[in-house]
User: Fold these one by one.
Assistant:
Number 1:
Amino acid sequence: MTKEIQTFAISPLGNLDAYIRSTNSWPMLTAEEEKVLAERLHYNGDLVSAKTLILSHLRFVVHIACNYAGYGLPKADLIQEGNIGLMKAVRRFNPGVGVRLVSFAVHWIKAEIHEYVLRNWRIVKVATTKSQRKLFFNLRKTKKRLGWFNQDEVEMVARELGVSSKDVREMESRMAAQDLTFDPRPDDEIEAGLVAPIGYLQDRSSDFANGIEEDNWGDYAADKLGLAIKGLDNRSQHIICSRWLDDNSKTTLQDLANQYGVSAERVRQIEKNAMKKLRGAIEA
């Protein structure tokens, strides 16, 4: 990726809301458009195609980054890290595999965000209560003299600190443990014999890529429906809105017939024709 593309995509500079609106202004690509651009990049190194692929998928990065708001980290930084993952995915994407870019890029986007979260927010604390903190600091001093405890030393330390042997063993284990990244960066070197938790822990409750695609398709369909309704005549618009879009209650055919001075059957026909036009506009 060129420096120009990186600067344009990575940094949500200035007003974050304005940046998010700008990401939504880039049109979503159809499967065929995406394939053509990906092939130009993959086989010819076309950076203009790379830029289009990146810009059209920035909205997905924002969507993913918003799911990490609970960690107390700046949303702009989460988006920036996710954009780095998106660019790595675009660079490695092979259009011949037969999957959409968003499905491939989700892993890379989340990997970069995970790495940022783990660098800036420690999930597991060694000591959380006042007594645990006291035990932790005293145990550190004692271990400098004795090293790894045998059973007699555990009991001796427990007596000196006024705690149970179990508490000493648990704190010693916490102090000796090392953090293991749940989802390592794709280019990390993993020590022989070690497997990151993502390799054996599964979340069967959701498919993140499908969820993003469904959300964006819902927004797209809603926009098309709004335009299609505006294309109806005033009476048809009122009948459709009263029958199907009113949040309070569904107006009956007879009520609408009384308003327009026609039969209920005539209102039903107008409704049927209007629904047919709407379906045609959405499916087009």
Number 2:
Amino acid sequence: MIVIFGIKEKLNPIKAQLSDVIHGCMKSVLGMPEDKRAHRFIPMDKEDFYYPGGRSDAYTVIEINMMAGRQVETQKQLIKTIFQEIEIQLSIAPIDIEIVIKEQAPHQWGFRGITGDEANDLKYKVNV
């Protein structure tokens, strides 16, 4: 699951395209299937969204929650690919993007009535 935070006036107009960009990166780097998009957008009022100096109102935070197992180099490639594609496709500079990957053990995920460590029919690999 991916959660995206930003100032609503900047985030709302680009939600669909940003979702496409992020999911394209997830597919190309992690091998995620097309139908495994789980994005949650949190558009915020400017007065509720504090961010570091030197950033513009386009500042966006992307939290990627995933089952543990991806190699460090794979995770780094995902982060760098997202920075690159957002800049190319949405003209948002990397200085205005913050990405964090949060890993949880498979047994800490619950979906389809089972836990992630019980799922043996995933259409993608976790250990890449």
Number 3:
Amino acid sequence: MAETLLDIRGLKTWFATDDGMVRAVDGIDLSINRGETVGVVGESGCGKTVTARSILKLIDMPPGRFEGGQILWQGRDLLPLDAADMDRIRAREIAIVFQEPMTSLNPVYTVGDQIAEVLREHEKLTRRKAIDRAVEMLSLVNIPNAKARVHDYPHQFSGGMRQRVMIALALSCRPKLLIADEPTTALDVTIQAQILELMQEMKSRFGMAIMLITHAMGVVAETCQRVIVMYAGKVVEEAPVAALFGSPRHPYTQGLIRSIPRVDRAATHKERLEAIPGTVPSLLDPPPGCRFAQRCRFATDVCRQAMPPLKQVGPGHFVRCVL
């Protein structure tokens, strides 16, 4: 059996606001095995990024708090750990590429100094050796003339090149798990493809696992082995990528897949993309029952009475739906 690196059990990450408690992540289960790429998909506001930040305990407290659950990293629960213990895990064992490459780098330090800082902190290298490793990492992510560009500032790089710097920064300590939070946001389509190809190449080189957070189903189909679909703070479906796209079982997943443009039929069929009606419910006071029921064309009274459990419907395929 594959070795489980990350095992999240019943995680609840809530935020206190003036209007009440926002249940951003409300009891999710998620696991990632060594060497695997797992996609986490869903609309904006469904809890993807909060889940990623919870793993590394990058939630501001207050207003955030962990209301329950476990985050088991190689069998060790991260939630009780203090800041010093978490610092030994961040970057060295679990690294993250944040959502916005334009704002995630510090504008007053060179990119080389920012990579070197991580290496000096976690691997105790001298400044000279850390800069040499930074040059090596920039070359690895295909930044031309890395020896000279290591002394440049973030504003001297394009958006795609900044994202490459972010990946070099995240991979500098050879982590076992890379969390990529929408790594292709705001990038041109051709640059998106290059970044995804680079991540797959780095995965093969370092033997790491990837947790890919995105709302682009096409990206998931191209790069992932397993997919987790989130909606309103809950996991509503989980399946191997072929099973999810070949036989999606939850109405929300079906809606996401129907919203993908069909390039293969564009020349012969003029079809309007199908949108999912309505909006994600407020997580201040989520409705009883299935949280997708208000937008689901198949919903019955049973759906609105109690939250359906996550049931297995095939090998590795789980769905939270009474139908």
